[in-house]
């Protein structure tokens, strides 16, 4: 997944989020495609259908959570659920709070803390904080066709802080949930200039690549308790995005406001059949940029069947846009699941719809996006997936899937440099990541194996293939999206206080596309080095309250680029300690 610095193991286990899965397993409505890189691609077939989870022993503990810097291709999303601060301590569900910090080379710091301010049967107030920072020197990779700008090293700086607050009140027949978040993300555009640097254009003039982006939002919703009559959810969500710097030196960033209103209701017809509809409205309002504000109305009427062996949903995804270059869009929403043998499931889905590519959303994929130029929204007429999953063997789970997807205005990354020099004044773009839109289709396939033969041993292996081509063409689209991704890992508990985890990641088929305005001889496209990372981590629990951790990341010390001219960290380590209270 080309989501950089998302700590896949660190964020996937949450201290307060586990209870929401039970109800979701009963509905095919959670069959939602995963946003991978710039357009939705199913990356994990297990998320498509409601299939029993692997049985977990009472003595089994959560995976070791790795650092933000574990994988060169991972990055923290702007909105996170409460991360598990125990780092592997058993059953901390009713603990009051936690705190953890890890420090390593490159001046990497990874810290988080959380506390239950109110923890009663009907009222809960939760607060948590997360910090990630770095300030290390990286070396640029040299390509055979790269232009020599005289820069060999760069300093990567980042100071990322997230605050989250969530309140829940339980009534007799419904619950009211309100949450708020704030993220302060300070970082520098450390990418290598494509042609001329700011020193060549501005001389000794004062310029800065130190960006500050603020994310903030609030969400409030009412959710009915499951019943046999009508189930409903009503929600209002606001997200804000505010960047200080723009694309050009001397230009201000953008201010984006995104307000979403949503109502979702369903009711049973009889024991096996139900109907429902979800209606929403998205209002996006912009300042300090050329992009015009727009509104999208959405409707998703559906009909469902749920029997002992078969689950089926048939619906439509309808979008009505105002001031967004399109007016009316429609896509199917079909999902099918059949348990043809005990714990053996065949599933298929045909979905689509319109995806809003806001700055807030795209910045969760990479912080280094163009902070001024607008991006087209993506419309997917059809996204087909068929797969098989079996849990026949108690300790072994296996998933296999494949499909094809077609999107209008699918987004792919590229780097550009615009130089406009007139006399003694000049304009130059910062080294950002831009996106271009094109109609494209993708073949996708993958498998995942999970194996846990003993309480002290568990392993997993996964492969994912996504190959994008332009509409009507056979040539593969070059971008930082990998063609193949391999993930493998193993966790061993040699003695009860100690967990040891190793994982391996490999990605191939990565590419780049560059554009330098006014220089037709500049190399436009090529291949990025494959990504190969090996990580090792350990947690030692002194007691139920205190633990110590160590991580060795990119043990092979491979050199790679996140994007063209944007190197990732080589070998790095973190050591730290945590407390649960």
Describe this structure in words.
With 581 residues, the protein is mainly β. The chain has a single domain (8-580), classed as Beta Barrel (Maltoporin, Chain A). Helix content is 3%, strand content 56%. It contains four helices and 30 strands. It has helices at 8-12, 21-24, 198-202, 359-362, and strands at 35-36, 39-40, 97-104, 109-119, 123-139, 153-170, 174-188, 210-224, 231-243, 255-268, 273-287, 294-306, 310-322, 328-341, 344-355, 378-390, 396-417, 419-422, 425-428, 434-454, 457-470, 484-495, 498-508, 511-516, 525-527, 531-541, 546-553, 561-563, 566-567, 572-580. The strands form four sheets. The protein has a 22-stranded antiparallel beta barrel. The protein has a two-stranded antiparallel sheet with strand order 1-2. Strand 28 and strand 29 form a beta hairpin. It is globular and about 75 Å long. Residues 1-93 have low confidence and may be disordered.
What is the secondary structure topology, with strand pairs?
Blueprint: H1 8-12, H2 21-24, E1 35-36, E2 39-40, E3 97-104, E4 109-119, E5 123-139, E6 153-170, E7 174-188, H3 198-202, E8 210-224, E9 231-243, E10 255-268, E11 273-287, E12 294-306, E13 310-322, E14 328-341, E15 344-355, H4 359-362, E16 378-390, E17 396-417, E18 419-422, E19 425-428, E20 434-454, E21 457-470, E22 484-495, E23 498-508, E24 511-516, E25 525-527, E26 531-541, E27 546-553, E28 561-563, E29 566-567, E30 572-580
Helix content: under 10%
Name the CATH superfamily assignment.
Answer: TonB-dependent receptor, beta-barrel domain
Radius of gyration: 24 Å
Number of domains: 1
CATH level 3 topology? Maltoporin, Chain A
Helix run count: 4
Going by CATH, the architecture would be: Beta Barrel
| Beta-strand percentage range | over 45%
Class by helix and strand content?
Answer: mainly beta
Q: On the 0-100 scale, what is the average pLDDT?
A: 82
End-to-end gap: 35 Å
Report low-confidence residues grouped into runs of 5 or more: 1-93
CATH class: Mainly Beta
The gross shape turns out to be: globular
How many beta-strand segments? 30
Largest sheet, in brief, is: 22 strands, antiparallel, barrel
Protein name: TonB-dependent receptor
InterPro entries: Beta-barrel_TonB_sf
Subcellular location: Cell outer membrane
Signal peptide: 1-20
